[in-house]
Amino acid sequence: MKALVKIMPKKGVLDPQGKAIEKSLNQLGFSQINSVIQGKLIEIEIDSINENDAQKIVEDASKQLLANLVIEDYEITITKEE
Amino acid sequence: MEISVIVFPGSNCDRDIAVSLKKVFKSNPKMVWHKEQTLPKSDLIVLPGGFSYGDYLRCGSMAANSPIMSEIIKCGENGTFIIGICNGFQILTETNLLPGTLIRNRDLSFICKNLPLKVENSKSRFTHKYSANEIIEIPVAHNEGNYFADQKTINNIEDKDLVAFRYCNKDGIVNDETNPNGSKNNIAGIINEQGNILGMMPHPERATDKVAGLIDGEKFFISVLESIQ
């Protein structure tokens, strides 16, 4: 099974990288773009028979290592491999 | 005096801190590889600066899960002195031995210079050799030194006088202009509630030898030495 973990800065946490990208895009002429937030996307393959187990494993992994809950939120999407 | 300096893949201030500790403590620290499962008996544990695991994922996040860390967490909870400098501070926040975290510098640039610091708490076991509000000069060298925590945590740190050092200018002015990296309340270093763990971004070990220019870090190490004895 496959999992995607999307990790984004929490609201209110300074995201200087997103701000720099936003500025750069504006300078390129993308004047309609008025907010950029940079996060991470982590793709994981798991040996697991069902989606519930997979969800739990990735949940634990996210809390323990992948995300820092002081500054980040995470969102997990489980998909069966094609 | 038994001192352990923990060495991670990517640590690069481990030798510097060992030299400073040897000079002040007159004792040879043990260099402990992060994969060790047991820690030698230690009165003081130091997590040095550097770029453990190449700063991948988040600074200090992988080092915080190294095999030796469960021993260090136990020691810290039982009152052993722990100092985390720069990457060591980042590791301590990732293990939750210290609150908050360190994020990317506000202006996105790596800062490498000598900066004035205000000794905010001169009564702690790490800082008592300094006088109240003393202004000292210590080198900083970091890309992710922007101290962040939610407002409740910041209030708790401030109310309990757990800020050890703040960034300021030469006259001791603490404000946004004298904040090099965007840290909340100009925080450069904090102490835990028990008073046995300190984390700081600046490098006191780089300020213990006149030949290298600065010596204001010496009182920091003498404070720790006297507190342990």
Task: Please explain how this structure is put together.
The complex is a heterodimer of chains A (82) and B (229). With 82 residues, chain A is of the alpha+beta class. Chain A has a single domain (2-79), classed as Mth169, Chain: A, CATH 3.30.1280. Chain A is 34% helix and 27% strand. The radius of gyration of chain A is 16 Å and the shape is elongated. With 229 residues, chain B is α/β, with parallel strands linked by helices. Chain B has one domain: Rossmann fold. In chain B, the strands form 2 sheets. A 9-stranded mixed sheet of chain B has the order 2-1-3-4-11-10-9-6-7, with helices on both faces. In chain B, a hairpin with a 5-residue loop joins strand 10 and strand 11 (197-200). The mean pLDDT of chain B is 97. The chains are: A alpha+beta (82), B alpha/beta (229). The A-B interface holds A 13-14, 16-17, 20, 64-66, 68, 70-71 and B 57-58, 61-62, 65, 93-94, 100-101, 103-108, 146, 148-150, 182.
